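Sequence in, structure out.
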Amino acid sequence: MDINKKYEQWLNYEDMDASLKAELAGMTEEQKEDAFYKNLEFGTAGMRGILGAGTNRMNIYTVRKANMGFAKYVANLPEGKERGVAISYDNRHMSYRFAIESAKILAKFGIKSYIMESLRPTPELSFAVRYLKCAGGIMITASHNPKEYNGYKVYDDTGCQLIPEWGDIVVDYVNEIDDELEIEQISDEEAYPFITWVGEEVDEAYYKAVMGIEINPGLDKSDFKIVYSPQHGADNIPVRTCLKRLGYDIVPVLAQCAPDPDYTNTKSPNPEVDASYELAIKLAKEVDADVVAITDPDGDRLGVVAKHNGEYVLMSGNQSAAVYLEYILSQRKEKGTLPDNAVMYNTIVTSDLGELVARNYGVDVEKTLTGF
C-alpha cells in the first residue's frame, strides 16, 4: 500500500468526518505510517483495533467496509433480509455511532435490524439473536482491551461466532472492497424503516432465561454478600437486576457503575489483571463480603475473588470454572438430573482441573479450539 497516497486520499476526501480530518491534519510521519501501512484485518470473528483515522484503525469507514461484507452474507441467507440482524454495543467511544452505521449499511441491502436502545452485554446480544429469530448479530465492543480500542464482532443465527466456513465467506466479501471511502451511506430517513429499537421485552426474556438456570431455587441467601463491579461496562443493570431478584445481597462498586468509556475509576477493565479488583476488594473488606465478582466491559468475561481464611484470594478462570462445574455436577447428581451421556466441553488451552472434576462424575470431556 502506498502510504502517502492513501493518506492524501483520506485527507482530501470531501465528506471526511470532521474529527477524523482534524486528526489526519495533525499526523506525524510515524503516525501516518502506522495508520495506513495496512488495512485493519477482518477475521472470522470480526475485527478490533485502535480508534482513529486511517485504514488500520477503527472508524466509520472501516466499520462500513466490514458491514458491507456481512450484509452481503446475510442477504444471501434464506429469508435473511426479513429475519434481520440484532445489534448491540458497549460503553466504548464510538460504540453507539458504529451500531447506527452498521444498521444503515444493512438497510442499504433491505435488511432489517434490531438495535438495543442502550448498551447491552454480549451474552444478551447472543440471546437476542435467538429470541428475535434473527439471521445474525453484530456486537460493537473491544471486550477487555484498553480505552483506545473498539471492535466489531459478528454472529450467526444461533448467536454464536461464525464457523470458519461461513466466516471465510464474509471475509471474502469484505476483501472485495478496495476503497472504504467509496461506500455511500444512505440517509437516516432511508434507513429508519428497516430499523427497530428493542429493549425491555428482550431484557425481561433474557433475565428470565438467566434466572431459570438456578439449580437450587429458594435457598436462603441472607448471610451471603457479593461485592460486584461492571468495570464501567454494559453488565451493570443485567447482573444487579438478576442477582437482586434472586435474593442475593449485592453491594455494587458505585464508582465503577457508570458506563464511562475512559474507565476513569479502574486501573484496568480486564478481569485477568489483578489491579482491576482494587476498589472492589477495598469495598469487600469494608462490608465483609463473601465474594467479589467483576465483569469486563461487554460482560462476557467474569473474574472472582473469594474470601478464604479471612483473606480475599483472586481465583484464576480455571479455578473458578472448576468450582462451578463441581457444584453443577454434584447438585445434578444429587437431584437425579445428571444425564448418563453428559458431556463437558472445554478448550485446548483450558487446564485439566475441570476435566478431573468431570471424569469424577462419569462425564465425558470434549476439547475444542478457543472461541467455540
